[in-house]
Amino acid sequence: MLPTRMQVAVRLRPRLTSESHEAEAVLATSSHRVQLLTTPRARRPVSYKFDHVFTPHDSNQAVFDAFLAPLVLSVLEGTHATVLAYGQTGTGKTFTMLGRDLWGLCAGVDKANTNDAYWLADDEPTQRRGLMYLVADALLASRRGPVTCSYLELYNEKVYDLTQGDANESGDKVPLDLREDAVHGVFLPDLRVLPLHSLQTLTDILWTGAQTRASRATNMNERSSRSHTILQLHVDTTDGTTATMNLVDLAGSEKCKKHISTPRHHTSQDMKVLYTCASAAMIMKAK
Question: Is 93 part of any known ligand binding site?
Answer without folding.
Answer: yes
